[in-house]
Amino acid sequence: VTVSDLTGPKRYQGLVNARHISMYVAGKVFRLGGHQAARLLNRKHHSSHIHASRVLKDFPALREEAKILETKWRDRNI
Fold first, then answer.
1. Under a CB-based contact definition with an 8 Å cutoff, are residues 69 and 21 in contact?
2. Phi and psi of 35, rounded to 5°?
3. Which of 7, 13, 53, 68 is the most buried (most CB within 10 A)?
4. Which residues of the chain have a pLDDT value below 50?
């Protein structure tokens, strides 16, 4: 998945899931508020971030994928 896919308007299910995960992880890793995390991916407002959090709460597989990505970001060598 490319950055332009994540920030674009397309709504394919696989792409939407990737967008939810990336928005959630960006909010956690970079300590962004809901509005900031949503704007990072060209979403209109904080409700996109809230929806992403709810989706991850309801789908354990997506939540696990988000945890793995979050761990990789936190453990990277800078």
1. yes
2. -65, -45
3. 53
4. none
